[in-house]
Amino acid sequence: MFARLRSDIQCILERDPAARSAWEVLTCYPGLHALVLHRLAHACWTHGLLWLGRFISHVSRFLTGIEIHPGAKIGERVFFDHGMGIVIGETAEVGDGCTIYHGVTLGGTSLYKGTKRHPTLGRDVVVGAGAKVLGGFTVGDGAKIGSNAVVTKPVPAGATAVGNPARIIEAEADARREEAASRMGFSAYGVTQSDDPLSQALRGLIDHAAAQEHQIALLWQTIEKLSAAQGLPVDAAVQEHFDAAGISRLLGK
């Protein structure tokens, strides 16, 4: 029990830059308190003490603002960041290492008793603030759910789901875009992977700039090949200051 508590505290210290000490986490973090009380409630529930399990979860909800049904299964090193407004249903399962932000709902879309009504999160899943994951499906290991997304279908491992209704975005395209932005000295910290018009415009500009850079590189390679074929040296100064306008001037000559 104490080993698991130490693991939970260390988990919070690693993931929350605002956490300054183990004592602060132990005494001031409602996400940790909710986890400890849920384990007690879940133990009562699995041993047939259903009312007691529900009562403990009710007290936990009052103290922490986090509502976890005693029947839900929560793994190791789960981190509720801020936590207020989190709701986790009876048949939900949260895998090891998951991070869940405030306002998240792991809910159901049916009213049939005895069925799997709530989602299963794999290992190391991140669910953004305000997201709703609704239904008895699985979110794969390492997946990410964007803030305020509404997810009603399975999410593959390692994928990112955003929007309402949620859609899977291309992780490879995002990685290429981020790399291109870094080369330009631009970090889109405030840009979210959502339907926000400003976000879409910035992503479009980054993609366009990356495409232009690629075309310039191809043109330069062609000029180098032509120069080598004709035995003419390429001016180092031109290479240093090469740009789209320079290409036009060179080709015009």
**Spans where pLDDT lies below 50 across 5 or more residues:** 188-193
Strand content: 5-15%
What is the top-level CATH class of the largest domain? Mainly Beta
* Number of beta-strand segments: 15
- CATH architecture descriptor name of the largest domain: 3 Solenoid
Average pLDDT figure = 82
CA distance, first residue to last residue: 78 Å
Secondary-structure element string: HHHHEEEEEEEEEEEEEEEHHHH
Structural class: alpha/beta
Largest sheet: spatial strand order: 3-6-9-12-14-15
The major sheet is characterized as: 6 strands, mixed
Chain oligomer state: single chain
Number of helices: 8
Portion of residues in helices? 40-55%
Number of domains: 2
CATH superfamily of the largest domain, by name, is Hexapeptide repeat proteins
Molecular shape: elongated
Using only C-alpha atoms, the radius of gyration works out to 26 Å
What is CATH's topology name of the largest domain? UDP N-Acetylglucosamine Acyltransferase, domain 1
Summarize the structure.
By secondary structure, the chain is an alpha/beta fold. It is built from 8 helices and 15 strands.
Q: What does this protein structure show overall?
A:
The protein has helices at 2-15, 22-28, 30-46, 50-64, 171-183, 197-230, 236-240, 244-252, and strands at 67-68, 73-74, 79-81, 87-88, 93-94, 99-101, 105-107, 120-121, 126-127, 132-134, 138-139, 144-145, 150-151, 160-162, 167-169. With 253 residues, it is α/β, with parallel strands linked by helices. It has two domains: 1-169, UDP N-Acetylglucosamine Acyltransferase, domain 1 (3 Solenoid), CATH 2.160.10.10; 197-251, no CATH class. It has a six-stranded mixed beta sheet. The radius of gyration is 26 Å and the shape is elongated.
